[in-house]
Design brief:
2 copies of one chain form a homodimer.
Chain A: E1 19-25, E2 35-38, E3 42-51, E4 57-65, E5 72-75, E6 77-80, E7 83-89, E8 94-104, H1 106-116, H2 124-144, H3 148-162, H4 167-174, H5 177-186, E9 193-194, E10 199-204, E11 211-215, H6 228-236, E12 241-244, H7 292-304, E13 308-313, E14 316-317, H8 322-326, E15 342-344, E16 347-349, E17 353-354, H9 362-378, E18 383-387, H10 394-407, E19 412-416, H11 421-430, E20 434-436, H12 445-457, E21 466-469, H13 485-498, E22 501-505, H14 544-556, E23 566-569, E24 576-582, E25 589-595, E26 602-607, E27 621-625, E28 631-634, E29 638-643, E30 650-656
């Protein structure tokens, strides 16, 4: 805490620092949390920097890699209005620190004054002497640094300033950037100011920017070994990540039956989220799925299909989990000494014991849970989907993610927290690489535009990476209940093109499973969470080909691999939504139009102009619908589109803008 | 600087704190600077506070006065969406610190769970026992605190919870706020979280919120003693503050003559801003103005007229200032050993030596300059207008203002910094109570609306108190050059009603001095800065009566004494501007319409609706034009106004809204 002022007045240690540094950005919660970037990104840093009076300020960006004692400096550029900009590239995974330093550039200030002095100024003689002193000081610095050539050049400049030569010669030398830069490099930086905080950027692997996920229950296909064929099926659809529900042994005591019934028969398989039995806890594989070796083989098979395995980590225990006997102090007890099961009255989860993060033994608990991650990393997992992180202590997540990523900076964590916005944002700030979103409940045009504008333009864009799911084993959204094929296709296309990170739970999705357990419920009828399901993957009406097509389009168009650059466009029909995504270099541009009405043909006029180089000046752009293969020539800013739900309920246009004209010929000038 | 994460993982000391506190507001630059308030204000503090899971969070605002070791706590109220609000009143001058603390309220969480349990819940028995434990713990706390009555009540509640009595009795007790509040007071707060920063509020006297200033040169009226009559003249116009240019001896060496001519004759009086001669420096009174005793008498006379004296402090020296001999190291030297005079090439100010804030002897310099303020405070000054603070080190101002206000918290500082916006804002943040603004150059409707919206709605509203000047000795704005009476009247009314703090430089203003030194210049012809002027205060066309009327209107209408609550309203004529000011209680409402065209009659339809209780529902409000005395009845939202520049070019309406209807009778229900 800063001390409040008292009557005893103390002169500040930094009293002679005349430069002020403010508003360094990007910065989250005053530097409390890192921003997030991808390996290879250029980080753009802005700062307000100024001094009293008319002196010129020199401003540098100071960057160091986590763990390093020192870093590197680069000049920041003045943008005007006291704003400076600098950039650096994050080429390695892990954490970087960045801050801003600034000082009065005395030689630049001298040169600026000089440029304003008329030739008849009587003070010019004195000015040359002042300039010579500043150059001499830099020359000394260069000599001290052993930069002989530079020192000589500086001494020569000093000599010119001191001699009786023509003012114009001296002036030409003074306004020469080479000299100014040389003096800057070797002059002593007196009273340099350093911004009061070191800000941080956390660097993730490329996968964090863009990924297509497929969630499935391997037990419905036999064991892990038997599910290898499923991996090929998923890879054929073009997914990057295969996400498995927990694979640990399932509790037997108070096991739930089909459709969450409170009683189970001996043959019921139970919920994979009721973790732990006499067969083992979080660091074991359920025997019905196979062995640890089978799990590793599954990961290897996935890798050979160019996919990664994401594993679900749910920190909760079935009553017969080994922790309950070994560490009863990790659970909350009732006054009668029994362990408190999970409750959110009137709901009761007798088959689940939550962990008590306020336990006296919290340090051992945290370390054990950390070891669960390290254990699965050893088996080949690099992505964790964390179940309900918002019901465990925030400080635990901050510590465990930093600890694990300190050892394995390539590891990613996806937060499955369907809860209040500030809680979701806190989890993202403290380290989760990705976050589940409310996409599942955003269906209308207005809802989608408002939500994705907030996600991509709000402050969260620096740390909250949206992961959107068309469905999950827990959520059959009302839009998809009893819905036709077009509804599934529309939600798939929205998910895959609005967000660079998306997922589906299959085969329920591509087979268009659409019956809820009951009216008003979002649970699936005969949910795979509690029972095995047989899936006919080769059904003629499967969406698998559309899924494959969409994933190929994502792979081939960089614009869809990034959440920056999303922009919505007006279309005069509330059943249709239109948006574009573009890379910052403008090389990849995709325009999407979706018919949100799965029952009727819809049409409308949309407003969109390619950019000033095309369209706007009367030239046309070629719009290539990557779904149907059709091509159109568009010019101007208003375009008619009509989409029938009988076919694919969307158009995903690749914009081909470089229509050649005489300007493109190299003999045109 | 925070340490960047390394591979060595350390468990956080605060690992068991489950509550998170974010986004505490108001806060300037992450708490680096205090917000500003007036004595008696209620400060409203907001924070985002939440925990993992479903537990109820209790949140308190912690406030302490500067210098105090401990402070007081008050409950914050949940506003929904994890936002909490608390308030405190700043009843004393000086600095207060505030921060937010929060913890899990275990008993409130218990009660919430209980309220959701159906009567047939088998876990109710266990719940009563848990509740009894929590109550017993609070009872122990009360016993320990010696709160006997409270302890007995708690023990009784515990007994009810433990006995076999009806569940309904227990339930009634649990949902009773008296019990919850009692348990809250005495229960141990486990793992309480404190927000990482203590934020600050700087409390100024009432004068800082609203004041009308009059600047004049006493030497034009003889000496200080002779100017007592002038004080009465100024008080009659209703001003609160009399502001004097520097009163110290004026340098004789290189003294400037009339109209800033580089040569002066023996009778020329010189510029009061060229401070110091053999007669003394910053801590002396120029002999031509009188003695120190005369200065004190002037302050006393002003006080007897209910005015305060504001003194101009210009930290710069004439070449013959005593500091130059006594402390040559406080000035910058050229290579030839001479002292560097002020320059901003091609402009030269040979009669001014700036102080060098980078001097090795900076500590002695700072202390001496601080003593200048303390010296004048001893003579009776409580308000300082600081000349060009942006050409002196920021860190000096932060220190000197804190030092002086630590001793004399009633002292105010006005920053005369006409410079770039970020520099002006920095000076305001670091402690200046008021700031000169760009008002002088904002003339059109669009310029005024944009500027005052930024001032009253932008982030500066927490620390940047605008002070607007219709003119100054340095600035005869182009709008007033060769301008008619209506232009002066319009600028006066705009200044006095747009801003709660305003000023004029007189008698030049009320006598409508309108000739610049040259075309393109904003300097006055025959500026009083360099020569004595004779003013005919009783000229028939003087604006003094209008000034007096405007100041009386400001005094009688609280809405004009505050910059919050300014709102602009549409009017369909670009030569007219319309705005209202209202107090937060809605008791005082002023609507202003100004004709910005001093040459022609203008009219237009304005859009304004009193509030939902009047006007909008068809009832009428009485609009009382305080300038002309005319009254109008307005209903609905569109109103016609017509203003001729021949009379007063504005209407300042007091809104009288409480038209009585049958609803006001107490037998109406």
């Amino acid at each position: 805490m800063p001390r409040l002022p008292s009557k005893k007045s103390v002169l500040p240690r930094t009293g002679r620092e005349r430069v002020v540094i403010e508003s360094v950005a990007p910065s989250i919660d005053c530097g409390r949390f890192p921003i997030k970037r991808i390996r290879g990104d250029e980080v753009v840093v802005l700062a307000d920097v100024f001094a009293d009076g008319h002196d010129v300020v020199a401003c540098t960006l100071y960057v160091r890699k986590g763990g390093a004692r020192s870093g590197i400096e680069s000049r920041m550029v003045a943008l005007g209005n006291d704003r400076f900009q600098g950039t650096f590239v994050v080429s390695e995974l892990g954490t970087y620190g960045y801050t801003v330093r600034a000082h009065i550039d005395r030689f630049a200030s001298f040169c600026l004054e000089l440029s304003r002095r008329p030739p008849e100024d009587p003070d010019l003689t004195s000015a040359w002497a002042s300039g010579a002193l500043l150059i001499a000081e830099a020359a000394e610095g260069a000599e001290h640094a052993g930069a002989q050539a530079e020192a000589l050049a500086l001494r020569e400049a000093e000599r010119v300033f001191r001699c009786d030569g023509a003012a114009s010669t001296k002036r030409a030398l003074a306004i020469d950037n080479v000299l100014a830069e040389r003096v800057y490099r070797f002059a002593e930086r007196r009273h340099e100011t350093t911004f009061e905080r070191e800000l941080m950027v956390s660097v993730d692997p490329e996968r964090a920017r863009s990924s297509a996920w497929y969630e499935f229950f391997p037990r419905s296909f036999g064991a892990l070994r038997a599910a290898h064929a499923m991996l090929e099926y998923i890879a054929d659809m073009g997914f990057d990540v295969v996400y498995l529900p927990p694979v640990s042994p399932i509790g037997e005591y108070l096991r739930k039956g089909p459709n969450n019934s409170p009683t189970a028969t001996a043959t019921d398989v139970g919920s994979p989220w009721a973790i732990g039995s006499a067969r083992g806890g979080h660091k074991a594989v359920a025997p019905e799925l196979g062995t640890l070796a089978d799990f590793r083989a599954f990961c290897e098979k996935a890798a050979s299909c160019h996919m990664e395995v994401a594993l679900d980590i749910a920190f909760q225990c079935a009553p017969d989990h080994p922790y309950v006997q070994a560490h009863p102090q990790w659970f909350r007890h009732r006054p009668d000494g029994t362990i408190q099961y999970a409750e959110n009255p009137p709901k009761k989860y007798q088959d689940i014991y939550p962990l008590d993060f306020e336990t006296e033994d919290w340090q051992a608990l945290w370390q054990e849970l950390r070891d669960v991650f390290l254990f699965w990393i050893k088996q080949g997992v690099r992505i964790f989907r964390v179940d309900n992180p918002h019901t465990k202590a925030f400080s635990f997540w901050e510590w465990v993610i930093a600890d694990v990523r300190g050892r394995h900076p390539e590891v990613l964590f996806l937060a499955e927290a369907f809860t209040r916005p500030k809680v979701m944002h806190r989890l993202a700030k403290l380290g989760f690489s990705h976050s589940y979103t409310y996409f599942t409940w955003r269906n209308t045009k207005h809802e989608l535009i408002e939500y994705f504008t907030a996600l991509t333009r709000g402050p969260g864009r620096e740390y909250f990476r949206p992961h959107v799911w068309a469905n999950t084993p827990d959520i059959l959204p009302s839009y998809l209940q009893y819905a036709p094929r077009a509804a599934f296709a529309a939600r798939l296309i929205l998910a895959a093109t609005l967000s660079a990170n998306y997922g589906i739970y299959g085969p329920a999705f591509e087979l268009m499973e659409n019956v809820p357990r009951s009216s008003g419920s979002e649970e699936y009828q005969d949910s795979e969470k509690y029972q095995l399901r047989m899936w006919d993957l080769n059904r003629a009406d499967s969406l698998r080909d559309l899924v494959a097509l969409i994933n190929r389009i994502r792979r081939e168009n960089r614009a869809l691999q990034d959440d920056r650059g999303l922009e919505f466009h007006a279309i005069d029909n509330d059943n249709m939504i239109c948006y574009s995504k573009a890379t910052s270099d403008g090389e990849s541009v995709i325009l999407v139009v979706v018919n949100l009405d799965p029952y009727h043909r819809q049409s409308g006029w949309l407003s969109w102009t390619a950019d000033c180089a095309a369209g706007a000046d009367g030239r046309s752009v070629q719009m290539h619908d990557l779904l149907s293969g059709a091509r159109y020539l568009w010019s101007g800013g208003r375009h008619f589109v009509e989409i029938s739900p009988e076919n694919i309920p969307a158009q995903v246009f690749r914009v081909r803008r470089h229509t050649i004209s005489e300007n493109n010929f190299d003999y045109y000038c």
